[in-house]
Amino acid sequence: MDVLHVVHGYYPALGGSERLIQKVSESLVNAYQDRVSVFTADGYNNELFVDPSQPRLPSGISQLNGVTIRRFAVYNHLGKPLYHLQQLAHQLHLPGNQYLRTLYNGPILPGLRRAIEATQCDIVAAAAFPLLHMFTTLKACQHTGKPLVFIGALHPLNAYNYQRPMIYEAIRQANAYIALSSYEKDYLVNEWGIRPEKIAVVGAGVDIEPFAQATPHEFRQQYDLNDAPLIGFIGQQGRNKGVDTLILAMKQVWPQFPEARLLIAGSQTHFTKHLQELISTKLSTAEQAQIIFKHNFSEEEKPLLFSACDIFAYPSHYESFGIAFIEAWAAGKPVIGCRVGAVPSVISEEEDGLLVPFNDPESLGNALLRLLNSSELRKKLGQNGQEKVNQNYTWQIVTARWRQVYEQVLNE
User: Fold this and answer.
1) Rounded Cα distance, 69 and 86, in Å
2) According to the model, what pLDDT value does residue 203 have?
3) In a 3-state reduction of DSSP, which class is residue 342?
4) Residue spans per domain, the chain
5) What is the pLDDT of residues 212-222, one digit of tens each?
């Protein structure tokens, strides 16, 4: 099978959709000997789409683990003038404001549509909404008759980005849709009238062995942790990821566990500056010393970070799935998420994790203390999560489900 994947970022760009498309692309090559190409932008993250000062990856064609990657140079000089225009149009509910928002979000990739139309492939799949390349891909496939699958990775609670009828009209016109959770499928069916038979719930995956085999000694020795409890947040330091809530929740933890440490590991964003200001103004000097920042680690290091943690806390607001939860489970760790969006359809509360309200430091602090005070509960949740991963979320299982969607589209 010849497959073309279109996505806004690809390794070494970091993010959930970026990682998902990379692993599925490589698994299709390795397990099924499919020929897979990826069209993507040349940014490390989405901030390049509106900010010319952000660093770029080399554009052009390269190869990685059997996948052919073509990076298109982002055109981002409309970012500043479009920002205020689309904000005003959105606030005033002007007709067409959804199109201005989509143009502003980007990525504007000159040459992408022409390249999709010219590519010889059996099927095209694109991720993720609400970004502009999704609509570019749809137009290209409609022009050529290429079958199209969308991977939306929707965050319905984010009204600014996802309350756009143009997204759901695009989904209706695709041949199939891959949802990452049952929550996403239910949202599409119940709120937007998408036919349920068009949607396949596939989930996301993880490489189990590196996480199961990783040992905590190296990381703990490096930071002189000894036996101190370590609470970890491992993910992008974005505005809606709840890192600020976790920092404030630690103020409940330290009176009972003064030796406890907080690990914040992941790529920096503009929000990182706010986190640093929060730490400097809300925490004492002694509390500040209990926080470990580790920026922009490699994928090879990630299992070591999860292995070193006693608890994984990811109090995010917008998650289409939450790959970080299954990575923590692969390492046998208990997880804490928020009772919003897709997360409750991934975490079985009290069975493999705990759920708390979003943006509630007190509830999060209580959940952390509950786990810190019970090694039996930590062990139970971590083991149940690990079993769930083995049964549902290996890349072998996920890729098989994914490819089945492609086969069904081609057969139809």
Assistant:
1) 32
2) 92
3) coil
4) 2-205+394-411, 208-391
5) 889 999 899 98
